[in-house]
């Protein structure tokens, strides 16, 4: 993707008369792409109704929490956002259409934020996370921040949690010292390579 340390994974589908098969995740291939092992510490699922907007979510360093996200039911507009202060692509985003048929996944390294809009009812998203969730480490940035300008193409008010609706915009998150720096993230990636 145009954001460093974010990758879109499009599997090769093998169809036959029963349906199809595809390989969704291969550790060695992802390790080669990102430059260090992606170890799975936790797996999560979220289920959302049409019009639900979740995010922008990230995790502070330490501990960090890289994610591989996949839509396993329904369809979403999935967004990766660079929240690393000082990054050459800070504040930029990349949109991926994910749905249950394609098997497309998005990998986001530590320091990148994630959000999605449910385009269908009963959307189910799978998150493979590099570390277990640690209370108090979640970073929230408002997905409707006009300075980020993510084109959600909303036709009505989205369904959001109170926490997401009240999240600071990117400028407020920077002023409050909530976002990691690009240098902190690069040092973190280097430590992961040494493990």
TrEMBL record:
The active site is at 57 (proton acceptor), 127 (proton donor). The keyword Ion transport does not apply. It comes from the Bacteria. One of its GO terms (biological process) is polysaccharide biosynthetic process. InterPro entries: RmlC-like, RmlC-like_jellyroll, RmlC_Cupin_sf. Pfam families: dTDP_sugar_isom. The record marks 133 as: Participates in a stacking interaction with the thymidine ring of dTDP-4-oxo-6-deoxyglucose. Keywords: Isomerase. Transmembrane segments: none annotated. GO terms for cellular component: cytosol. The keyword Isomerase applies. GO terms for molecular function: dTDP-4-dehydrorhamnose 3,5-epimerase activity. Belongs to the dTDP-4-dehydrorhamnose 3,5-epimerase family. This is dTDP-4-keto-6-deoxy-D-glucose epimerase.
């Amino acid at each position: 993707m145009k954001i460093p340390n974010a990758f879109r994974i499009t599997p090769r589908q093998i169809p036959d008369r029963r349906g199809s098969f595809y390989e969704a995740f291969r550790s060695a291939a992802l390790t080669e792409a990102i430059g260090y092992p992606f170890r799975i510490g936790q797996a999560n699922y979220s289920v959302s109704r049409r019009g639900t907007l979740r995010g922008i979510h990230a995790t502070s360093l330490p501990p960090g929490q890289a994610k591989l996200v996949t839509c396993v039911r329904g369809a979403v507009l999935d967004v990766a956002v660079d929240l690393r202060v000082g990054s050459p692509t800070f504040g930029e985003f990349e949109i991926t259409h994910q749905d249950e048929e394609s098997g497309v996944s998005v990998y986001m390294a530590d320091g990148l934020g994630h959000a999605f809009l449910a385009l269908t009812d009963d959307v189910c998203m799978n998150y493979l996370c590099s570390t277990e969730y640690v209370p108090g480490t979640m970073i929230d940035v408002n997905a409707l921040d006009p300075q980020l300008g993510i084109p959600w193409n909303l036709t009505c008010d989205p369904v959001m949690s109170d926490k997401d609706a009240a999240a600071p915009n990117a400028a407020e998150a920077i002023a409050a010292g909530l976002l990691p720096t690009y240098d902190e993230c690069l040092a973190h990636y280097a430590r992961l390579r040494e493990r």
